[in-house]
Amino acid sequence: MFDKLYRGEPTFDGAPPPTGIPWDVGQAQPRLMELEALGGITGEVLDIGCGLGDNAIFLASRGYSVTALDGSATAIERARGRAAAAGVDVAFGVADATDLTGYDGRFDTVIDSALYHCLDDDGRRSYAAGLYRATRSGARWHLFCFSDGNVNGVLAPRAEVPEQNIRDTLTANGWRIDFLGPTTYLANTSSFAGDPNNLPEQLRRQLPPEQLELMQEVAKRFAAIVPLLDDDRVHLPFTVVHAVRVD
Ligand SMILES: C[S@@+](CC[C@H](N)C(=O)[O-])C[C@H]1O[C@@H](n2cnc3c(N)ncnc32)[C@H](O)[C@@H]1O
Q1: What are the pocket residues of ligand 1 if the criterion is a CB atom closer than 6 Å to any ligand atom?
Q2: What value does the CA radius of gyration of the chain take, rounded to a whole number of Å?
Q3: What are the tens digits of pLDDT across the range 163-205?
Q4: Which of 66, 120, 213, 225 has the fewest Cβ atoms nearer than 10 Å?
């Protein structure tokens, strides 16, 4: 699904080609930049589910040694192009976050900018365990994912991750949560603002009623605010987690 989106192809049968990539804002996430400025990034960095690479490129430009991995080969190819244009070195690679091998004991800081909520429960458990193996003593994991909050009335466009899910998954796999709280994530409105009534009937029938209801509410709110936005950008409600690897 993600690779098709990065190639600009319909992500399911009967869908129109995507109008954009909602998380492609052409810059690092503002909350990640603040975290870096406040000293939250140390040592060898892993940006997992790096997408088009803007967070990794920002950190490399600040002098960090960064490995950036994603399951989509197209995303990684495009991210390499962006890093070359920015004149920075990032060790990009294609990898499945739920089956992370070959990186044992490598990293001191992990950045997860909107990956965790893409995984199902089994995937989240394997991912958390894999990150434990891939990190060193005292490593920190900064995780950003959809929340059930709202930012001045803007809702997350898909199901949020319950706090208890994060707590259970991380603590069961060797991570201690030092902080969990609300934050925001910068996105553009492409493919969030669409009315779910325009989806192919076959797809609509597969979606749970509460998901359709949420999509309708999100589309209604976005329709009202899109004409007011600068550069089509919107701040989405997220949760941020700062966790430490327990030895
Ligand atoms: C919402 S995007 C966020 C991209 C980027 N971190 C950002 O904030 O701009 C989620 C990314 O996770 C990647 N992804 C999803 N499942 C994955 C998996 N199992 N292993 C590795 N990457 C995955 C997708 O290809 C996509 O690039």
Answers
A1: 2, 23, 29, 49-51, 70-72, 75, 96-98, 113-115, 118
A2: 18
A3: 999 999 999 999 999 999 999 999 988 766 567 777 777 777 7
A4: 120
